[in-house]
Amino acid sequence: MLSPVELDVLSEEDLQLKNELELLVERLKENNVDLHRPALESLRTLIRTSTSSMTSVPKPLKFLRPHYATVTEIYESWPESDNKLFLADILSVLAMTYEEGKRDSLKYRLKGLREDPGSWGHEYVRHLSTEIGQEYEYRQENELPSEDLMTLALEIVPFFLKHNAEADAVDLLLELEAIEKLPDFVDKDTYARVCLYMVSCVNLLVPPDDVAFLRTAHTIYRKENKFTEAVSLAIRLGDYDLIREDFDAAGELDELLQKQIAFILARQQIALPIEDDKIQDILNNTHLTKHFIALAKELDVLEPKTPEDIYKSHLENIRPGFSSGSVDSARQNLASTFVNAFVNAGFGNDKLISIDDGNAWIYKNKDNGMLSAAASIGLIMLWDVDAGLAQLDKYLYSTEDYIKAGALLAIGLVNTGVRNENDPAFALLSEHIEGAASSNMRICTIVGLGMAYAGSKRADVRDLLLPLVSDTTLTMEVASLAALSLGLVFAGDCNGDITSTILQTMMERDDSQLKETWGRFMGLGLALLYLGKQDAAEVTLETLKAIEHPLSKQVAVLVEICSYAGTGNVLKVQNMLHLCNDHLDKDKEDDLYQAFAVLGVALIAMGEDIGAEMALRSFNHLMHYGEPVIRRAVPLAIGLLCASNPLLNVLETLSKYSHENDTDVAINAIFAMGLVGAGTNNARLAQMLRQLASYYHKEPNCLFMVRISQGLLHMGKGTISINPYHSDRQLMSPVGIAGLLTTLIAFTDVKMLILGRYHWFLYYLVTSMYPRFLITLDENLNSLPVTVRVGQAVDIVGQAGRPKTITGFQTHSTPVLLAHSERAELATEEYISLSHVLEGFVLLRKNPDFMEEVKD
């Protein structure tokens, strides 16, 4: 009851309302049944018409609360009748303010008249949906039937969808494990918000809910004929039949839309056999080089740059007479080779090697340096197969083995990311697999094939390379690189033949061979087969336990981190951090698996902002308390987590690590700085690297790494990104991840590989290189300049109304460059975009409703 003080505070109206309600309760107690119905009607009217502020309980509910027990007794005492059902409905509403946790609202609701729950207001419906979730969980645990709950939930869902509470509708169906019923309730007004919420939840859900969400959202998009959105989700699901079905259905609806989908698939390097030559050209990425050169002209960066333009040595403050004389010139030339290749990648011309006197530069390098120098032509000619092969032809007949080997690797590089109907890479490289004159040529052929056909899942490449994996008479180097190339070609394919062959080989090889540095690449080849496939790797992980060699633990970690790459799975991240806890004695036990576990934290947390932020905090702890092997891997993991995304705090952290006493940590940190800034031309980072160049001017290895990072920073003169996420950071490119990971694994033994004879491992980055442009095309696939707004992307999930998707925008005319966290939108209504994301190649169609403004 209200205290006398509270009664004094009540206004006259409230007092009148209170007395009226108490009178109605008294009426219900009386035996005269005729009075019950009008009393119930009045109660209902008073409860429904009451208004209250957001923070207080509605007055009728507040005044009736003391009488709740009385009303329940009245309910129990009445015989079964319409009035009893009516009272149950009212009790259901009153129960909201009474004891929590008893689920009375739901109990009386199920006994009541079953009127539309929405008529009692939004708060009641939300309260009811919470109780439905709790009751369902209770019934599932006790194996009780729950059909009545489902019926009620399906009455509530349409109410939520009508009243802008899409998230509540999705959550309710998720709790009842019935998300597949959602498409029946969604219409053209609500689908966009529902799907946006569902897709953004995927990273936070555990299997199998995450897949169910993607499939349901896909169904909704297909129902609304939103094909580009549907295809994006089919790609995330990795379901090729679904992709094909969407692709064909779009073709029946609209030929231009099918071309737009082909561009999305080409970016993800998904090959679909198709009759139409024009669409096949799009899927083969044939247009890439033409538009990339056009972009360079537009941005005025076509002019080739020399390494010195990048180093800007005159800005390094080294005292005169102390010039970098202590660094051997071959090492500097080698660094310049890589810088030249990365900076001029894809432009088809440079000032060192593709000139008439290019041979002279190749001979300025020693042995394996010649190999990397010849291979760099492949990177400069990237995506332009015809011109590239013409340029390389003369080197294939060189008398120098190293140059020939480099030319073979270059053939692989030129063909990366593009396909050609004549298949030149396979024709030229396959003959050198068996009949190679030297081991270098054979290795470059294997690596070249892996790059050229990355992600293509070609059976003929498998048949060519598998025998090299299983032949135990070959060196571990050849077998491991063949396994790695197969991993690249069949990334995320779970191919059974390759899996069993690699596992078999690991069992048959001697312990001494498995101990070699190359063993990790055989493991990586196996791991890449399961990229992003989650549970599919369980059997392989069990088999690895049977191999009694430290390598099996390393490979198990690699397989696990690859299979959960980009999923943001919290439990797996915890597993990896747990592995880093052990303090091992390096002489007795192998601790390399800890380095892979550190990379795993970054690999799993990628693509989800909150997870990435938490991972960066964990790395800070690992750097303080970890063993040397862990500390060396931390900068690499940061590089992977923030590839081509130069966040200021990350740059500061890496800058600190790059001055560490442990040179391995410093070298890895310097390389990570290059990865983080790759292709961004970030001025602050360029300044940091110049300072490092003068700081390390007497340390040849560190200086070499600084130069490489300067090359990466200005990759493609600032037009190329290596971040594996694209399409508004929704899709992860498997070959992009594979290339990055391979390069980083090579850095776990930097002295032997990158700083030794195998510096060409840096070229593995090529599979993740792609221009960060937005090019708008007309219906004939010709460039069509339009104005677009480019700004920082804003997360608008669950926001009311029509919030802005970008902030702080500038208006440009296409083609434009987009940074990692930027998004573009059309600034004109004259055209309609066929893609839901403005990124890469976007086809535009004239807007039939567009009215040109009349100019005075």
TrEMBL record:
GO terms for biological process: proteasome-mediated ubiquitin-dependent protein catabolic process; regulation of protein catabolic process. One of its GO terms (cellular component) is proteasome storage granule. SUPFAM superfamilies: ARM repeat (SSF48371). Residues 797-850 form the 26S proteasome non-ATPase regulatory subunit RPN1 C-terminal domain. Residues 21-316 form the RPN1 N-terminal domain. One of its GO terms (molecular function) is enzyme regulator activity. Acts as a regulatory subunit of the 26 proteasome which is involved in the ATP-dependent degradation of ubiquitinated proteins. Belongs to the proteasome subunit S2 family. PANTHER family: 26S PROTEASOME NON-ATPASE REGULATORY SUBUNIT, 26S PROTEASOME NON-ATPASE REGULATORY SUBUNIT 2. This is 26S proteasome regulatory subunit RPN1.
